[in-house]
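Protocol step 4 of 5: obtain the predicted structure for the target chain.
Materials: sequence only (see below). No template structures provided, no constraints applied. The aim of this step is simply to have a reference model before the mutagenesis design in step 5. Sequence pasted as it appears in the construct record:
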Amino acid sequence: MDQRSVGSRIGRVVAATAVVLGIAATGQTDGTAITDVSIRRAQIARFAAFPDTSIDALCFSPDSDALACGTSDGRIVLFDVRGESPLREIRSRGAAITSLAFSPEGTLLASSDASGMVAVWDPSSGDRIWSTVEDAAVHEAGFSPAGGLLIAVGDSPAVRMWEVETWEPRPPIEGHTGPIYAFAISLEEDLIVTGAGDDDPTVRLWTFPAGEPLGDDLCEGRIHDIEYSPADRHVAISGTQPSVWLWEVDRAEFLHLIFGGRTPVPDVAYSRRGNALVMVEEGGTFRFQRVPSVYEQRAVRLGEPLTAVGFSGDGLFIACGSRTGTLFLLSVP
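Step 4 output (structure tokens):
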């Protein structure tokens, strides 16, 4: 599928229509990083539109040049962020894409969907490299920090793992009593944090990859996302509560809350340095938070129910997706 046909299916990229946070500006970024200071000068452009669907997954490539976007009708679309144009569309099985993750070197793209499929794609061509279908929906799939393992969690109460070079399965991590909705692995690859909900309202800590239980903590409601801080051994946990929970990994216990609005927080993302956390709320608010501070730095109403967020590794872009199919791109002009 060529770029023109991809563009016709997702709607024209709209870089000139902006929701301005500070000063009005359009066009390309000059390379200003998004920090707790520059966020006040930034703009959000309506970067692309996906009519009649929801954007449920976002991730930037490690070099920050590409943005992968997953929709509720089973599409994965890759964008050239700086060129403000779609690169290619990957067609999965038609089930809602629940997560996307690049490998550390950016040569692989993992996806999961609501039908139970876990797949690995070549992002440069769109070809499928490997896939498997689980017995139930998969909520998140991603690579270990060094890239040697692919991990997936879902309605099955176990953490599944595969060797990336051979795609041979590793022994699962078992112990949850219900669906697992999210996970995060320490940068040292010695620990994994998993989050459940519903009948198993726990966040749990395990050795990785052996899966020996080290501790757990109760949570209210269902976990939506867990992100590991690049700066310290903390994780940010979001879910059906209108706040983000900072959790200290080594002690497996609550640190403090970052309060949001009145609606659930579907997704969070750290900056590469770990000194900033961004979050989106179902009520339509995007928040930029300096961490570990508990004081809110910036909140912006986007007017659409938000579902996904991503922070580019170079710090120049933040992407937000909505339930009504709008892809927003935040940058400092």
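Step 4 remarks: The CA atoms of residues 64 and 312 lie 5 Å apart. The longest helix spans residues 3-10.
Proceed to step 5.
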